[in-house]
UniProtKB/TrEMBL annotation:
Keywords tagged on the record: Transferase
All copies of domain N-acetyltransferase, residue ranges: 11-179
Protein species of origin: Pelagerythrobacter rhizovicinus
Cross-referenced InterPro entries: Acyl_CoA_acyltransferase, GNAT_dom, N-acetyltransferase
Keyword Transferase: yes
Tagged with keyword Transferase: yes
PANTHER family (UniProt xref): GNAT FAMILY, PUTATIVE (AFU_ORTHOLOGUE AFUA_3G00765)-RELATED-RELATED, N-ACETYLTRANSFERASE DOMAIN-CONTAINING PROTEIN
Identification of the protein by name: N-acetyltransferase
Organism domain of life: Bacteria
One Gene Ontology molecular-function label: acyltransferase activity, transferring groups other than amino-acyl groups
Gene3D superfamilies, alphabetized: 3.40.630.30
Length: 186
């Protein structure tokens, strides 16, 4: 049974369970949604990510979560915390936050609402001293939300990942400390 990690005004953030990969594959794995995230994935790739996330939650108490819309009960995205695990990154093991919202729920503020809860979780129960978020210059909506959340651009942590198309390179990073988050929220 899924754990409810946080609730916001419009969302329930719950852990991912066995069998959720098919739901993500159907609702989130579209060319438009995945355009800046390395493209659509195969179902087995999503299943592998879910297995890794469930293991992380069991071991460390954090992972990526499904965003469930309270009004409909539908899954509208995913968000959460993982460890930086890209072998090319300069900061492996850091707490990395991220999000993804299905296309028919874009421009409703769900990503910001969910990420405020995720950052409270990261700096509260998880006890992360700082978090990072990764994107590309081309993913304007993503880095603009990072800035809106008070995150600071960290050019010293950028890296080139040839797994992504040229327009999504290099991978750029933003960071936020627990102190910066408290100041930003005030």
């Amino acid at each position: 049974m899924a754990d409810i990690v946080a609730e916001t005004e419009r969302l329930v953030l719950r852990t991912i369970e066995e069998g959720d990969a098919a739901l993500q594959y159907r609702l989130l794995d579209t060319p438009t949604v995945m355009a800046r995230l390395g493209g659509v994935k195969e179902l087995h790739e999503i299943e592998a990510k879910h297995a890794k996330g469930m293991a992380l939650y069991a071991q460390e108490g954090f992972s990526f979560l499904f965003m469930i819309e309270k009004a409909t009960g539908e899954m509208v995205g995913h968000c959460g915390i993982k460890r930086v695990d890209n072998p090319l990154a300069k900061n492996p093991g850091d707490h990395e936050v991220g999000w993804l919202v299905r296309e028919d729920r874009w421009r409703r503020g769900y990503a910001e609402e969910a990420m405020r809860a995720v950052l409270d979780w990261a700096f509260g129960r998880v006890g992360a001293p700082h978090v990072v978020a990764l994107t590309s210059e081309a993913n304007v909506g993503s880095w603009k939300l990072m800035e809106k959340l008070g995150m600071i651009r960290r050019r010293d942590l950028d890296f080139d990942d040839p797994a992504y198309p040229q327009e999504d390179r290099p991978t750029i990073l933003y960071s936020l400390t627990a102190e910066q988050w408290q100041e930003h929220k005030a």
